Amino acid sequence: MPTRPVTAVVVGAGNRGSRYAAYALDHPDRLKIVGVADPSDIHRRTLSEAHGIPESRQYKSVEELTAQPAIADAAINGTMDTLHVPTSLPLLEAGYDLLLEKPFSTGESEMWQLVDAARRLDRRIMVCHVLRYAPFYRAIRERLETGEIGEIINIQTNEHVSYHHMAVAFVRGKWRNRAEGGSSMLMAKCCHDLDLIMWMKHGVRPTAVSSFGGQMQFRPEMAPDGAGTHCLVDCPIEADCLYSARKHYLDQPDRWKFYVWRDLEHLDDPTPEQRLELLKNDDRYGRCVWRSDNDVVDHQSVAIEFADGSTATHNLVGGTSRPIRSIHIVGTRGEIQGVFEDSKFVVRQIDPTPGQDYSEELVDLRVTGDMSGSHGSHGGGDLRLVEDFVSFIRGEPRSISCTTIEDSINGHLVGFRADQSMEERRVMDIPESGPPLPTVGRGLR
């Protein structure tokens, strides 16, 4: 068993890449960050200062990094969706194993290109489906392993995206349209949920999917009477608007700071005046939500059929008052139902005893303190994922949550074909994913 830490380079040192790399600061015996590639001078410098990376190992692009022999065992790829495959392919060719942000591709042909490269080169890729590592979902998955609710008949999942998250990311922000963000809203936001469904049904492949949805709320014809084009420039109803950029961003400057204030990140502590000026001039976060250039859905429903005859549904709804993820799994002997943000679920079992009908057990993870980390760290899943990735690379036993690129194929196929189903208004078959990628460990470099 190797005793030295796994070495890694960070490609894309923004919010996600930096968060995953932070594991090395608390566990230097297991992970060491030895290089960074990012076009942003600020991002490179910030990550390099945190991890003591010398200037000789700070690169402006993945091309610079891969022009030389591999300098680490692995790469943490935290780039934007459109860059996942274009940056991962040269990393694989250069000899790196990967921790890759989800969704790992923006379409099927690109997905198979990356999968084929991993198989051909015998590289290990672990996909960042962090909710598998949240104690809430992991505990549910472990209860399914006991067989206490029998064979799964149906899974129902829901994701309600809050009005402020919807506005900042999918109406005004980076994922507001496919041309810029690369992914549909279903894949950008609910890739987690589709993966969870596949994980709960592990070993049973999906065979067909259908979907309906659209852009119902955030479009010009739905704008309130008198609405302007930019909240703080020409809107006479801004003070009464639920989506006022002043209320969302100036009054709560820390809530979405890594999105909204990116153009001020060169300043240690931007003043309210500087933030106001940015929102007045910025063409994204200060604009009216009904007059943006967004083209992604604000609601979508997905129905999935599995090879064993079971089914699943997922409902995405954007613009809700409360953000929640919920899950309800119905089996032949019982059911499991819960809400992620509440950190608790119930396990019910059929009980034909007169006066009973069913038994019910409440599992409250707050009692054990397992919901560590903030909501922004996916219920404590982020750093648990990195811990498992290190074990994966070192050839140590992996957890039940580990998701290789092969494990992630079906969830991506369902998402891609659900979007196609919605656009073409027809049921889509799901192709088989092919033979699994070998997971026999290789030695560390």
Short key terms for the protein model shown above:
six-stranded parallel beta sheet, 3 domains, alpha/beta, Rossmann fold, 445 residues, Dihydrodipicolinate Reductase, domain 2
Structure description:
This protein is 34% helix and 22% strand. By secondary structure, it is α/β, with parallel strands linked by helices. It folds into three domains: 6-123, 3-Layer(aba) Sandwich (Rossmann fold); 131-218 and 294-369 and 404-429, Dihydrodipicolinate Reductase, domain 2 (2-Layer Sandwich), CATH 3.30.360.10; 220-291, no CATH class. Helix 10 packs across helix 16 (405-424). The longest helix is centred in the last third of the chain and has 20 residues, at 405-424. The two termini are 13 Å apart.
Task: Name the structural class.
Answer: alpha/beta
Uncertain residue segments: 368-376, 435-445
Mean pLDDT: 92
Give the end-to-end Cα distance, rounded to a whole number of Å: 13 Å
User: How many structural units, i.e. domains?
Assistant: 3
- CATH topology of the largest domain: the name is Dihydrodipicolinate Reductase, domain 2
Q: Can you say what the CATH homologous superfamily of the largest domain is?
A: Dihydrodipicolinate Reductase, domain 2
For this structure, what is the CATH class of the largest domain? Alpha Beta
Main sheet overview: 9 strands, mixed
